[in-house]
Structures are given as C-alpha cells and as structure tokens.
Amino acid sequence: SSFLSQVSKHVLSLDELELDIKQPRAVRRPTGASFIRIVSIDVDTDLLHEILRGMASRDIHLSSYLQKLGILEGGGDKEVSGTLVKRCHVTMVHYSQQSQMDMRSRFDTIVGKEVTINVTSCLYGKNNLALSVALPSSTIGELPIPLPASKNQYPHITIWF
C-alpha cells in the first residue's frame, strides 16, 4: 500500500517497548445502531507521546520531524497540514473485512480486557506517523483469553496522517 511504501523509507528500529493498553472496544455508528465499524484496542495517547519523546531523544531525525509537526509540544510548522489522532488505537478488524456476526463471535469475549502491546518501530514519512506493534497472543489477568489475530497485515497505531 502507499502508506507502507512511504513509511518503509523511514523506519526507526527500537528496543522492544512495552505499552500497557486499556481495552479492546467496538466502535459503533453515531446513530446508536448496533452496527460495528471497527474493533480496536484503545491506547493511552499521553503514554504514546511519552514513548515518542523517548524515541526522539535517541534519534535527531525523528526529533526534528516531531518538532516540525508540533506533535509533542503543540504548534509546529503552519504549512504542515494533517490530522493528529485524538483517540489512538490498534484496529483489529474493520467492517469491510469481516461480517458483523464474525466480528462479534471473535471479539466479544475480550471486550473490556487488557493486553500488553510491544512497540517494534516508528514509521514516519511526509504524510504520516505510526508505531508498528506486535500483538500478544492473549489478554492479561488471572484468566487470560486468547486474542484473535488482527486482520491488518501490519498492526500499527496511527499517530498523525
């Protein structure tokens, strides 16, 4: 895809960072209908910014990129346009990839459970910024539940596009 071809030129390898994530959720249409658009794992945006700050402190190119966009401090270059994602998440499945019944049967048992995600790299280019992630095989807690595989070939957290 164009996203991958753009960001593959700018990959920053990282030591595996652990990211404690809140809960998978089903995002529903605003009308209140029971139609599920995506199943995702919510990620704390402040924690992501902390991770980005740590990565930027070790990489001058990433630091310059983040400063230009104003992602961490606010502001940034007025000529740079784009959208900073306010509710960061890992999309597990989109409604175009699976039936409503299949989404419910695969993911209903993990809604509200916590998982730990490993950030494996920072991907950035002219038009986007994302963190590549490795997903666990199960939820955390006393009774771990197997985590269904993401339908995304390259699971990631989009930060800016």
Written description of the protein model:
With 161 residues, the protein is of the alpha+beta class. 24% of the residues lie in helices and 32% in strands. The chain has four helices and seven strands. The strands form two sheets. A four-stranded antiparallel β-sheet has the order 1-5-6-7. A three-stranded antiparallel β-sheet has the order 2-3-4. Helix 2 packs across helix 3 (60-69). It starts with a helix and ends with a strand. Mean pLDDT is 81; it is low at 1-17 and 28-32.
Could you report the average pLDDT, rounded to the nearest whole number? Answer: 81
C-alpha geometry: globular
Strand order, largest beta sheet: 1-5-6-7
Helix content: 10-25%
Oligomer: single chain
User: Which blocks of ≥5 consecutive residues have pLDDT under 50?
Assistant: 1-17, 28-32
> How far do the termini sit from each other?
15 Å
Q: How much of the residues is beta strand, in percent?
A: 25-35%
